[in-house]
Amino acid sequence: MKIALLFLACITVASAQFWHPLAPCTGDHECPPLGYCCRYSTVLLFQLCELRPAEGWPCDPTGVSSCPCHDGHICQQDAVTTEWTCQKEMEMA
């Protein structure tokens, strides 16, 4: 059991060496390929990789303060709450 925990800890440390969530970035190409984009943080005052919003998550339609929604989703205003959230893109027939 101890060996398994040690092995798991080593894997965790090794995987953390490849990408750090607060590491500065200069473009989307420096972020993990699935689900992240490079955006300016108004809190940390530099660009960092940010998670792209999934369905139902708040979003910014201008793309200034948040990443674009995941593929297949668009940022739409909710008719009831008037908040902008990522919604599945409707296919046109």
UniProtKB/TrEMBL annotation:
The keyword Signal applies. Residues 1-16 form the signal peptide. Keywords: Signal. It comes from the Eukaryota. This is Dickkopf-related protein 3-like isoform X4.
